[in-house]
Amino acid sequence: MKLFRTTLIAAAILGFSTASYAEDAKPLKVGLMLPATGTFAALGTAIENGFKLYTKEQGDKLGGRPIEFIKVDDESDPAKATDNVNKLIKGDNVDVLVGTVHSGVAMAMAKAAKESGTILIVPNAGAQAVTGPMCAPNIFRSSFSNWQPGYAMGEVVAQKGHKKVVTITWKYAAGDESVQGFKDGFTKSGGEVIKELNLPFPNVEFQALLTEIAALKPDAVYTFFAGGGAVKFVKDYKAAGLKDSIPLYGAGFLTDGTLEAQGGDGEGLLTTLHYAENLDNAKDKTFRTAYNEAYKMQPDVYAVQGYDAAQILKVGLDAVQGDVSKKAEFAAAVEAAKFDSPRGEFTLSKAHNPIQDMYLREAKGKENPVVSVATKALADPAKGCSMN
Amino acid sequence: MDLSIFLIQCLNSLQYGLLLFLVAMGLTLIFGIMGVINLAHGSFYMIGAYMAYALSPIVANAFGGGFFSVLVVGLVLAVILGYFLEWAFFSFLYDRDHLQQVLMTYGLILVFEELRSLLVGDDVHGVQPPDFLAGVIPLGDVMTYPVYRLFISAVCLLLALGMYYIFTRTRLGMMIRAGSTNREMVQSLGIDIKLLYRIVFAAGVALAAFAGMISAPVSTVYPGMGSQVLIICFVVVVIGGIGSIRGAFLAAMLIGFVDTFGKVLLPEAAGVLVYVLMALILLWKPDGLFKTS
Question: Which fold has domain B3-284?
């Protein structure tokens, strides 16, 4: 029996090695630089799951080459980002970089990718600069820019007839860009932002600013918060008695993955994002079923972004038959492609940021089902991008 | 800013100051009075908050109790943890220099973060306050104020008074203060300083965890929450004067006011105001507001 088992294992190994030999293709080295620890660890896992779900659907091969993953935990620490990304580019000689969640880390990755020419696909970080001043033929984003959900919400809030709005967010790039998007969408439609409230990141003592909102008595409030800050803000907003008197609107991260922790205080909140539950498209339904089967949990927007990062990679690699040195052909194929994403179909702009529908969602229980399409095929203005 | 808004902001300041003092109290004990640089203070706070979240279903099953039974169980566990940590690690550190204390307590942060990730995951969680404290009271027609925040303030005041009394008016407090000045002398007087310090350390850990548990309903529970409170706690202890409970209390209130009004009146500088305050106070009084010994 033992002999049988040994033979079986040996045969399996032999078979496996000859199988990969038979392809006669060098494995494609994909550097996954995602957070595995720290505040964003859960997001990193979702992105990796989504990415691997797609490569598995493709038979663990992209562009005719088997895939070898090299993982680095970026710890969402911008201070370590340059070292980490250089380790992947120069040490491991990766063909493709995928990462990351934190915008500061993503900026360091974009800088390194721009210098070395390595293909980079950003599966979350919404910093506008990635597809703005830092844009490059070899840098792509499968997620969104911070500006996009803000702009869509600006239009929605104006349509609801609100005239004077106060914004509140953390004083950092993501918050600033989201608020700027909101202002662009809202003032274009005749609204006025009477005050922009800020607090230093990641401070979560909102009480002083909530009192300020109560004193200003605006028609509505727009906010960008995520994670623990989003949970606390929504709870504090309700406890301060403001939820019923001054409607709260936000970028989707306010209620994404946070509703359970908000314990019902988030019920009914309207947010905008490029993904929602109960989307009426077949791709999303098969994606959700497959994801649930593979990982025994429901996918979120981060999983979709990971999945689509792999889709972008496949389209590019197919066009160059797995030869990543043909950058121009790779980029041309990706720019021309239409991506069949669980979020709905999208294309990439010249600056390589998704041109996508923004959904208006209403928080119900633990989900954010779609209410309507807030803005169709919205493109980031991509200020400062030389490819525009 | 009209009068009613001004008064509400004062209430916000007071309430935030008290919360800060509550959170910094454990550090006052371990860093201020025992003199051990304890970077793991934030982790103890986080452990408390996660206990408030994770223990509640377990406690509800075993004792059928609510929030307060969770508090009691959490406190007991925190005391045990503190006692163990002192026995296993900290007792070797009293005579070492500060760098080694920094290294070890930093290592503890990493260990606790990883354990947290393994045991309860990386999601954000909310904790509900007990029902009878879940309400709000109206403040004029402007806004409402959660009762639970006022409850925290009251608890904090009680703890502050209790701690002040123990350290300045009782024999136990006297022994602890004496021990921080000269261990050998206290030992030669026939006091079991090792046991005494083990107990004080356990109390410090329990206080930090207690702060985490009791503020969990307002602060929410999320990865990395400990590192957020750590720095501000050190600021409180340093401004107040190392080892002074009165000083820490005053410092916390001062920071509460500066931070609250800073956010409203000088939003551009809100992130640095507290540290400017610390720099100014240390320039004026290099040992903090109340210097002991």
Answer: ABC transporter involved in vitamin B12 uptake, BtuC (1.10.3470)
